[in-house]
Amino acid sequence: MTSSSEGLKVVGTRPVRPDGVDKVIGRANFGADMVMPGMLWGKMKRSPHAHARIKSINAAKALALPGVKAVVTAADFPDIASEEAFMGEGPMNFRDLSRNCMAKDKALYDGHAVAAVAATSASIAEEALDLIEVEYEVLPHVIDVEAAMADNAPLLHDDLFTQGVEPKPTKPSNIAKKIGFNKGDIAAGFAAAEIIIERRYTTQPVHQGYIEPHACVVAVAPDGQCTIWSSSQGHFMVRAYCAKLLGTEIANIRAMPAEIGGGFGGKTLVYLEPVALALSKKAGRPIKMVMSREEVFRGTGPTSGGVVEVKLGAKKDGHIVAAQLALKYQAGAFPGSPVGPGCMCGFAMYDIPNVAITGYDVVSNRPKVAAYRAPGAPISSFGVESCVDELARELKIDPLRLREMNAAKDGTKTAHGPTFVNIGYLQTVEAAKNHPHMKAKLGPNQGRGIASGFWFNIGGESSAACHINEDGTATIVEGSPDIGGSRASMAMMAAEALGISYERVRPVIGDTSSVGFTFLTGGSRVTFATGMAVTQAAEKVVVELKRRAAMIWDISPEAVEWKDGMAFPAGQNAGNFDPLSLADIALKSGRTGGPISAEVSINAQGAGPGFATHICDVEVDPETGHVKILRYTAIQDVGRAIHPSYVEGQIQGGVAQGIGWALNEEYVYDKNGRLDNPGFLDYRMPVCSDMPMIEPVMVEVPNPRHPFGAKGVGEVPIVPPMAAVANAIADAVGTRMRDLPMSPPKLRAALDEQNPPRMAAE
Amino acid sequence: MSKHHVTTTINGEPMEYLCEAQQTMLDVLRDELGLTGSKEGCSSGDCGACTIIVDGDIVCSCLMLGVEAEGRAVTTIEGVANGDQLHPVQQKFLEHAALQCGFCTPGFIVAAKALLDSNLNPTEEETRYWLAGNLCRCTGYDKIIRAVLDAAEEMRAEAGR
After folding, report:
1. In chain B, where are the structural domains located?
2. Is A715 one of the catalytic residues?
3. End-to-end distance of chain A based on CA atoms, in angstroms?
4. Model confidence over B88-119: pLDDT tens digits?
5. How many CB atoms are closer than 10 A to CB A222?
6. Which of A680, A761, B16, B75 lies 20 to 30 angstroms, CA to CA, from A131?
7. Is pLDDT of A2 > 50?
8. Contact (CB<8Å) B102/A484
């Protein structure tokens, strides 16, 4: 399959997405938009304590309230042994997932679900929650990651022993595991360095911030057949997790993908569906459960906050000869922070001969973390890219030049194992150097920051079917929930392979009973892996179309060519036949062998990693500490942009999230470990007026393993912004901010420290 | 809980409904009237996903009680298009790819329509501040602003005809 850009008719263009009209008129159905006849409303009761033993739960008064039909607690879920399963974006333990959905024995964070009720109206369900009596024994709690690691910290799990340390510990700990990656000889590396800088950076947990709260409508029939309607990043994941948590067989569950209002990794697991199913089974009716925004903040995974300790050793000419990284990441109430990817991504942009990386996964009394766009990488990159900038300043070398000098290229072996091939990092640095943004003039209190980023991107299992309809139009059925416009790209790739126009291809996201197994929408995998499955299915159909044409002409299939959606005899010797269009062949399909269809299931290998280099201009208001983003340019190697508008959209969206992470977003806990800001007023995400236009620059270094050269694009853009902003602030006012978020009060305090204010005259 | 009877006009149609005192206008639209285009993002008036127009002003329907619609004229996302004729803002959103997940889109479109109903020539800054009450987590706002400014240009040209 050719991947040269000449000759492509659909791929690379910008058609209107097929689900677009529904979304601009409000007709598209999201998780909370579904109704099922006879449905009840489900509501969750949540712990008000950060850490407590659950002594008893008495639901008698709630059940006596007219309109209440069922109450469930952990007692209604089977006991699950500790079992790892790689189903999501990161490690997942089914026992922990079950206990996160419904607390068993202990409440481990403010907001942890302890019971649920189903009633005939939302207001009755709310009233019933207050009637459920829970007796707690409040325990000391711990929030901060280093406090949780201390010897005398309150322990969350008495069966959690630190993995990865020798000798094996006998005392439980909040440190779930220690990991490491090494390359070369770190001691020798630092010994050979002419300059060493060592710095400590910290970040706070931030929420994915999807505007759509979690929602589902489910029904369990008397014969145990389950129907789930929910918005998720993977309905096959929803099906598998619910089967496990409820102790039923996978075939008994049909999970339907609602349109999803944002996920960014936060919807790659379940919270409501298993509980709603348990309620439905007990009440004998469908159940609708929708989270409030407060519940989303108190009860669903943010990403980790962490401590990032970086030590760089370099020659005076700028070559980095040794690099050390220590990461301490919060996992929330159960193990499973993205400290692994954080470790692997930190130095991935660079070719450094001696590297030593250590990571700690630490539990504390906060909601269990979930994946958030390039999980783990933005945190370690904030530290590394800030430190690289500090090194550049010490050596008086231009930050782009320093990156160019040390850039990873094809053939560079990473600290975590793989050797890079077909990568485009250097190309992003070159593009940054030559971009007009670099020449824009800066005024007082304005500064420019540069930062780079990396993300692996994954392939994985996807299925897709291509069906030719009787009139020559095509239907593509695929299994990847569309979180950003991917179904348009699926239709485009199929149209390109079939040689017909985009408007004659209709993509559909099939439910778990209607399409083959597809791994979740995450890891920047859909255009790569599902796109590969879609293209292969379309190509199989083309083989069949040629065979049918051959049958109609009574010649050999080898003598048929397919071009621009038509079958042609291949040369003079094949015969003198008029071309047959796809529609012609479709019309005759019943007489030439039956329906023309192909389904493909693959485990896509060879995903190309993403690299980016960002340029950020800021203006700091020295009086208020407010940071304004003046201009932002995000340069990224995208492989090949299938639908350039949606690739640009991924870049712009990731940048905006990174800016929020850098400047304002954080969780504020009171002294009882309760969340003070579970809402959008005080959990401050960027709004329109905070942002300038964001210029995405797409560099294309195609990935030959994808039929059109595509690489994943969604996650890399969130990796550089925090350091880009911090580096710009340092450039603007000479203040180095090492603790996120760089909010106005913190910037003001740092500026005061730098230039102590004069005392007021007496 | 006894219910209140409300008579109002929604998207140009006379409507009546029963609702509990504490039900918000958003609850009524979504759960009583089947108008699920307006979305619930936060219930505290901070995200704008529930934006509607009431007697010409944009309002977060989550901050309004269902009973407050009595005697008023309400426009929701479902009333922005004219049959199958999209409003220029809707058309430009599609052309500019100004939506990714689409959840915030109804709120933005209603708010943008209200802006252009009052001012056909907003600057980029005016547009950004008008729409600052609508949160989007997917797009970074760039294509949304471009779409609204482009719609304004088209509507100015139409008005000039």
Report:
1. 4-79, 88-160
2. yes
3. 81
4. 999 999 999 999 999 999 999 999 999 999 99
5. 7
6. A680
7. no
8. no
